[in-house]
Amino acid sequence: MATLSQTKELFRRAEAVCFDVDSTVIKEEGIDELAKFCGVGDAVTEMTRKAMGGSMTFKTALTERLSIIRCSREQVNKLITDHPPQLTPGIRELVERLHERNIKVFLISGGFRCIVEHVAAQLNIPLHHVYANRLKFYFNGEYAGFDETQPTAESGGKGKVISMLKEQYGFKTVVMIGDGATDLEACPPASAFIGFGGNVVRQQVKERSLWYVTSFGELLKELEKI
């Protein structure tokens, strides 16, 4: 059984660090923001809570939430323009420091690629380091579902992405950082998991995390020890 000091050690010598996006790298849950923007906020927020608490499968929750929202391409673009995702304080500095140390940074999200790419661009994370769900639209811009073949559309999808990264890049030490049940489940195959409660504290995740932080400053401090 790993310990807190072993988790910190794994973080300090990680070859790759994978971040969840909603409520971790950014302050909000992208799908809830999209729902509010489309006028169906309350119904969808309740379902997000259930999904994050682990009481229904991720794909079921995603399918049901999107069938309520039914956003058009135009609405998604307008959301990004009018209400761009808000970065969590300290994330820019942390990613910068990881990049300086030649540690690869990936964003693995159950949210939507169109929003996550916007976040990646702000953090200088290459777009081929982004794994997220793709919304589908008909030629007239109306909602046509989502790409169910993406690993991030499934429960356990983040773990699948990490396994794939280890295979593709030959990484031995990969650390996952996030706020939710789907992030915690990604370890293993991740070498270590760091729970993040800077935007929202999910009790089940806090209790099961060997290392739980509420600010990215705590992780920056750890990197200073190298």
UniProtKB/TrEMBL annotation:
One of its GO terms (biological process) is L-serine biosynthetic process. Coiled coil: none annotated. GO terms for cellular component: cytoplasm. Its cofactor is Mg(2+). It comes from the Eukaryota. CDD domains: HAD_PSP_eu. Signal peptide: none annotated. The active site is at D20 (nucleophile), D22 (proton donor). Pathway: Amino-acid biosynthesis; L-serine biosynthesis; L-serine from 3-phospho-D-glycerate: step 3/3. One of its GO terms (molecular function) is magnesium ion binding. Its EC number is 3.1.3.3. The keyword Amino-acid biosynthesis applies. InterPro entries: HAD-like_SerB, HAD-like_sf, HAD_sf, PSP. Keywords: Amino-acid biosynthesis, Hydrolase, Magnesium, Metal-binding, Serine biosynthesis. It catalyses: O-phospho-L-serine + H2O = L-serine + phosphate; O-phospho-D-serine + H2O = D-serine + phosphate. It is an enzyme of class 3 (hydrolase). It holds the Pfam family Hydrolase. NCBIfam families: HAD-SF-IB, serB. PANTHER family: PHOSPHOSERINE PHOSPHATASE. Catalyzes the last irreversible step in the biosynthesis of L-serine from carbohydrates, the dephosphorylation of O-phospho-L-serine to L-serine. L-serine can then be used in protein synthesis, to produce other amino acids, in nucleotide metabolism or in glutathione synthesis, or can be racemized to D-serine, a neuromodulator. May also act on O-phospho-D-serine. This is Phosphoserine phosphatase. The lineage of its organism: Eukaryota, Metazoa, Chordata, Craniata, Vertebrata.
